[in-house]
Amino acid sequence: MFLPTPGFRVFFFVFLIAIGVFVFFPQLWMINTSFKTSADTFKLTFFSNPTLENFRKVVSDPKILTYLKNSLFVSLSSSFLATFVSVFAGYSFSKYRYRGRKSLMTLVMISQAFPQAVLLISIYLMMQRLGLLDNYLSIILSYITFTLPVGTWTLKSYFDQIPDSLIESAKVDGAGTVMTIFRIILPLAVPGMISIAIYGFVWSWNDLIYSLTLITRSDLRTLAPGLQLTYLGEFQSNWGNMMAASLFSSIPVTIMFIFLQKYFIAGLTSGAVKG
User: Fold this and answer.
1) If one looks up domain 58-269 in CATH, what number appears?
2) Residues 6+ apart with CB under 8 A from 87
3) Contact, 272 vs 72, CB < 8 A?
4) Beta bridge partners of 232
5) In sequence order, what are the beta bridge partners of 192?
6) Which residue among 1, 107, 134, 190 is the one 20 to 30 A from 263 at the CA level?
7) Distance (Å, whole) CA 57 – CA 51
8) pLDDT by residue (tens digit) across 236-246?
9) Is the dihedral of CA 60, 65, 66, 67 positive or negative?
């Protein structure tokens, strides 16, 4: 049994505090700045003379509400479609044996190795030729592309734990493949599906580079590029409104994770232990 020495305890707590400061201090600074006036933005003070003016400006700005609506539509659509496709891809890799299966599985995983900024070049040219620039379909398809490999492998690990005898019993009872998937497999895979849906939603919600490149129309912009182009300029930046808008935009993701965190954790850890 390992008994930590006093020196190790000191090192552990110092390291823990350092990680906590590294993780939480930027968030504390963002919250603090959102309550500051423009004149106090760069002053090293914490919550002195707080004001809600930044939040009032953000909530009353119709452009921000439009960006929020666009982000919700794009994120929910890409999350749902990526999860839907991942279910069938993961089930295929888990329960079927066919020629080229292992090569295809490897190819799906290797696709995650390419930098997203590099892939943007080919995706942009592809969307340009298809006439999908300034179209929600371009970024929805891009988000699905990056969520699909993680979703497929996560759900494959989940489906691996479902015994084949359960599927065979359904066949004996006269259930076809589609009915077996929707009536038996999917209810058992709900935690895994929710974890992928949350992953896809957060990824698309926080994206900047793809939404900024593929969408240039102001009325179609999502939240991340909309906030950047609204509050951050070449000669002047409104950091108070930017921080308030960032806090405002984090509410949907925070609420989603609070209510679905147990499914998210269960889905990600489902394939970690075999037995």
Assistant:
1) 1.10.3720.10
2) 155, 181, 186, 189, 193
3) no
4) 237
5) none
6) 107
7) 12
8) 788 888 888 88
9) positive
CB 211 within 8 A of CB 224: yes
Q: What ranges in the chain are assigned the alpha helix state H?
A: 6-34, 53-60, 62-95, 101-110, 116-129, 136-160, 164-172, 177-180, 186-188, 190-206, 209-214, 223-231, 239-249, 251-269
| Domain regions of the chain by residue span | 58-269
Check: CB of residue 41 under 8 Å from CB of residue 239.
Answer: yes
C-beta of residue 194 within 8 angstroms of C-beta of residue 260: yes
pLDDT mean over 7-23: 86
**Model pLDDT, residue 236:** 73
Token readout for 27 is 């968030």
Average pLDDT, the chain: 84
Give the C-alpha distances (Å, rounded to integers) separating 249 from 186, 220, 245: 31, 17, 6
DSSP 8-state class, residue 237: B
- On the question of pLDDT at 171 being above 70, the answer is yes
Q: Is 125 exposed, middle or buried (0-12, 13-18, 19+ CB in 10 A)?
A: exposed
Predicted structure pTM score: 0.81
The pLDDT score that the predictor gives to residue 39 is 80
CB 203 within 8 A of CB 147: yes
Taking CA atoms, 8 is separated from 15, 20, 21, 47, in Å, by 10, 18, 20, 36
Query: Rounded to 5 degrees, what are φ and ψ at 125?
Result: -65, -40
Which distant-in-sequence residues (6+ apart) come within 8 Å of 55 by Cβ? 34, 244, 247, 248
- Two structure tokens written together for 68: 């929020």
* End-to-end C-alpha distance for the chain, whole angstroms: 26
